Amino acid sequence: MDKILEGLVSSSHPLPLKRVIVRKVVESAEHWLDEAQCEAMFDLTTRLILEGQDPFQRQVGHQVLEAYARYHRPEFESFFNKTFVLGLLQQGYHSLDRKDVAILDYIHNGLKLIMSCPSVLDLFSLLQVEVLRMVCERPEPQLCARLSDLLTDFVQCIPKGKLSITFCQQLVRTIGHFQCVSTQEKELREYVSQVTKVSNLLQNIWKAEPSTLLPSLQEVFASISSTDASFEPSVALASLVQHIPLQMITVLIRSLTTDPNVKDASMTQALCRMIDWLSWPLAQHVDTWVIALLKGLAAVQKFTILIDVTLLKIELVFNRLWFPLVRPGALTVLSHMLLSFQHSPEAFHLIVPHVVNLVHSFKSDGLPSSTTFLVQLTELIHCMMYHYSGFPDLYEPILEAIKDFPKPSEEKIKLILSQSAWTSQSNSLASCLSRLSGKSETGKTGLINLGNTCYMNSVIQALFMATDFRRQVLSLNLNGCNSLMKKLQHLFAFLAHTQREAYAPRIFFEASRPPWFTPRSQQDCSEYLRFLLDRLHEEEKILKVQSSHKLSESLGCSETSLQEVANKAAVLTETPCTSDSEKTLIEKMFGGKLQTHICCLNCRSTSQKVEAFTDLSLAFCPSSSMENLSFQEPASSPSTQDGGLMQASVPGPSKEPGVCNPSTAAFACYSAVNERMVDSPDEFRCSEDTSVPNDSNKMLVNKDVPQKAGGETTSSVTDLLNYFLAPEILTGDNQYYCENCASLQNAEKTMQITEEPEYLILTLLRFSYDQKYHVRRKILDNVSLPLVLELPVKRTTSFSSLSESWSLDVDFTDISENLAKKLKPSGTEEACSPKLVPYLLSSVVVHSGVSSESGHYYSYARNITGTESSYQMCHQPETLTLASSQSHLLGRDSPSAVIEQDLENKEMSKEWFLFNDSRVTFTSFQSVQKITSRFPKDTAYVLLYKKQNSANGLSGNNSTTGLWVNGDPPLQKELMDAITKDNKLYLQEQELNARARALQAASASCSFRPNGFDDNDPPGSCGPTGGGGGGGFNTVGRLVF
Question: Is 856 a catalytic residue?
């Protein structure tokens, strides 16, 4: 029969005839044959299967062999024996090489035919050894896939015991050697299918024998971390990732990142190759493992590896976005890499040139999946442009390309950035190391206390959070200048972009410290703020004069030139600017104007003066229940440099600039209004000798401000402002010297704000001198802080000819009628009604302690711009009366009450921050309101309010053009380079510290205090006994720190 079959398949008969004859041969298998005939038939069919010249011959071989083996099983068992199979595997078959896939297919089919025979057990034992040998020879993907098919069907052929671990390791190495040189889709699909079969085999083995998993993964890491330049492991290893249980991520990443035997070069190679795996189609969880390893390296502060890998691979990851199969994983990894790389724009700028083409391509195809992808990509791009906003030339094309897609809110962007930085990684590894010293979850940077410098830190943070002011400072072109404003710009830039948890402002402190401030000693934050603003103001005026005269800024200026500059600056000081273009930045942002009007009650002549101010000092309202009156002491040093921008709390001319130490001058008897005056005119001089210090303070008999008795109704800032602006009768020792009468006369003095500032600074005069007991006291009264403050501003033109100077005495024919109306609480004419200008609370500087000689400063603040839609307010015109000192200028029933309640309800979604030197934490407005009730010695001291504008010319124009992507202006290259350099240095410092800790205390116990102290500790404390003496319950004061 074998001869007939052999002649048939090689004959030239028609194929249909051949098939009919073959069918007869198959049917004849049922008949009895002797052993020799069976063996001859098995030899022929084996030759046809393995060496058949065409598919028909191979098909005939399979059909006949299967039929005869079924009906003659003992004979086939004798033929398909251990020796025959071993020969096939080790020597091949005639001309057929032993590594030919046909041999494995033949063995696979043979095992199926003798599965029920006892001899199959010997074949299983043989194959357990042979498959291990075959894998060690690194078979090609096709042969390995066929072997996987065989082992999947016959798991008995898989090596057992220790050999199973070796087999898995060798199989991993084999996968690492896979390569596919073809670029044709058909071949690529076949290659992926082959690799999938092999990885599925490994998965089955891992499930059956879990002990093989970890050695296999170690082998994977050994392959991808190899630094041998002659070997590049195959990306096909990515097919194994999907089979690794996700529950093992923590254990494996911990093992890899903390293993001292894993060198940085090996880890870098491994991470780079894992990122290459994103190119492997159908592989799941590759992005999860890549991000887990990135986070693990950040947790142990191996930033050098992260920087190198990100810069090497960021463009490759971005290019993977073009391919739909791998796009989701690539986008996830790209997002993590970009958002965590926050110390420098270098990584982001590597992909910026490719963004526009990608966006246009996906916009044009119109697929829903493409639109969803672009929305996610757009959010990522907005976050990066927000973080690195100093490159409008690079970003404008991108902004144009993505303008049709939604832009995330600023709050969302900040949250994303704060959660993504390397230094803020949340990883279980961190619990076994010291707490990471990175930016807090707020995304804000603290200021390191340089030794009793909390007074400066609290003020700087308040100014930094004054958004429009910060943006203006950052937008200044100060290259080549070494001014104080340049140092402030440098400080603001670092606060905005450093990766450090806290920044040490040493250079700025030395440049801005008032000369009379003793280093490392307690000081008054309000005094420091005034000095700082005045210095910035004066400096800008001098620079403007230099610019106008085109003077050289070199140190070689002649004495004549310097004298000329000084003279010009003095002229500018004496002639205040009326044009916005001539104003300094300090005048634009903090400068207002206050008009003081005095009317002699004898001759009815009047005098008036308009003065500039940068802050208002508010005294506490008088209390009839107090027996012992104490006078308000100043909130700042009495010094005012010649030509300085006037403040509403600077004392009279009797105080010399040299008397500046708060321990000697700050506690003189001051009242609310006389502190508003600078260089008081003769019209205001008192009856006593003005050469005596503080004599001018006797001007306000009716405004002596006592401390409030406990239990009284809490005052509000509005009450203090009403009291500040209330009319006053000058009598007795405070009589007014009238030039017209040439004698001291009773007079009425009123004050009105004629020009409001962009930022209103209010200082609450809390420090007083008790004349009876001769001790210095702090007024601990709680003051309610409204979110919305309505400032009465009276813009009048009737005295425009008297601009900024004292008028000659003017007679009013009907002064008695006007005065009567003025003193009444109602009936004021329309001409006397001020306009209410709404302000929003921006920041609060809190003093914690019992006196100005001890305590601590910290601040609450939030970001507010002049055009925030959520705070737009519409006010109906109202007529308010400047009433007597007992009346309220701002009624309790004004629209602000309703608006404020609405704003308080919205505060839950708004960000308030607590700046306490190095620590920055989230807080709420409720915490700000309740701070004094919870900690009696922690009281609001300096307040910043932002004017609510319908359109803000200072900050709105640039941001709408797209040039200021995050609202902040682009940083100049000099600043950006300095920040990038420091950020890299910081990451290196963190890495070195982490390595040192790992060497010194590898098994140290987990012990660190979480961020944030116990709720019973006041925000101003340094521990359980802080907050100005145990949070207000300990009489022992502490120094400012």
Answer: yes
CATH topology of domain 241-425: 1.25.40
Tokens of 25: 């041969």
pLDDT of the residue at 698:
32
Is 822 in contact with 876 (CB distance < 8 Å)?
no
Q: Rounded distance, CA 214 to CA 56, Å?
A: 47
For residue 979, give both structure tokens: 């920040």
Residue 56 contacts residue 19 (beta carbons within 8 Å): no
Contact 600, 667 (CB under 8 A): no
Q: Distance (Å, rounded) from C-alpha 51 to C-alpha 68?
A: 19
Q: Identify the DSSP state of 580.
A: G
Q: Return the amino acid letter for 693.
A: P
Residues of the chain with pLDDT under 50: 425-437, 551, 553, 555-560, 562, 565, 572, 624-711, 798-831, 867-895, 897-898, 905-909, 951-965, 1003-1018, 1020-1041
- Tell me the three state secondary structure of residue 317: helix
**Which tokens go with 772?**
């009876």
Q: Give the helix ranges, DSSP H, for 320-367.
A: 327-340, 346-365
Residue type, 169: Q
DSSP secondary structure of 651-663: --TTS-TT---TT
For residue 467, which amino acid is it? Answer: T
Burial class (CB in 10 A: 0-12, 13-18, 19+), 705: buried
Closest of 394, 490, 357 to residue 963, by C-alpha: 394
How remote is the C-alpha of 548 from its chain's centroid?
41
Exposure of 4 in the CB half-sphere (CA atoms within 13 A): 11
pLDDT digit string (tens) for 760-811?
999 999 887 777 777 667 888 899 999 999 999 987 654 433 334 344 343 4
Q: At 572, which amino acid appears?
A: L
DSSP assignments along 463-475, one per residue: HHT-HHHHHHHHH
SS3 at position 597 = strand
What 3-state class would DSSP assign to 847?
strand
Residue among 387, 497, 856, 888 flagged as catalytic:
856
Contacts of 859 (CB under 8 A, 6+ apart): 458, 459, 461, 462, 843, 844, 845, 846, 914, 915
- Fold of domain 438-545+585-590+759-795+834-863+910-949: Cathepsin B; Chain A (3.90.70)
What Å distances lie between residue 632 and 455, 673, 705, 852, 886, CA to CA? Answer: 20, 11, 6, 13, 19
Active site residue 669: no
- Dihedral of CA atoms 54, 58, 59, 63 in degrees, nearest 10, equals 160
> One of 157, 454, 577, 686 is an active-site residue; which one?
454
Residues 881, 889: Cα–Cα separation, whole Å: 6
The crossing angle, in degrees rounded to 10, of helices 525-548 and 484-497 is: 120
What is the predicted pLDDT for the residue at 23? 81
Place of tokens 């603003």: 533
Closest of 124, 759, 746 to residue 459, by C-alpha: 759
Alpha-carbon torsion (576, 581, 584, 588), positive or negative: positive
Which residues touch 85 (CB under 8 Å, ≥6 apart)? Answer: 107, 110, 123, 126, 127
> 3-state DSSP call for residue 954?
coil
**Contact (Cβ atoms closer than 8 angstroms) between residue 858 and residue 1027:** no
d(CA 696, CA 655): 10
- The pTM (predicted TM-score) of the whole model is 0.59
Burial string for 230-261 (b: 16+ CB within 10 Å, else e) reads: eeebbbbbbbbbbbbeeeebeebbbbbbbeee
At residue 840, the 3 state secondary structure works out as strand
Q: What is the DSSP string of 118-138?
A: TTHHHHHHHHHHHHHHHHHT-
CB 308 within 8 A of CB 268: yes
User: How far apart are alpha carbons 736 and 70 in whole angstroms?
Assistant: 130
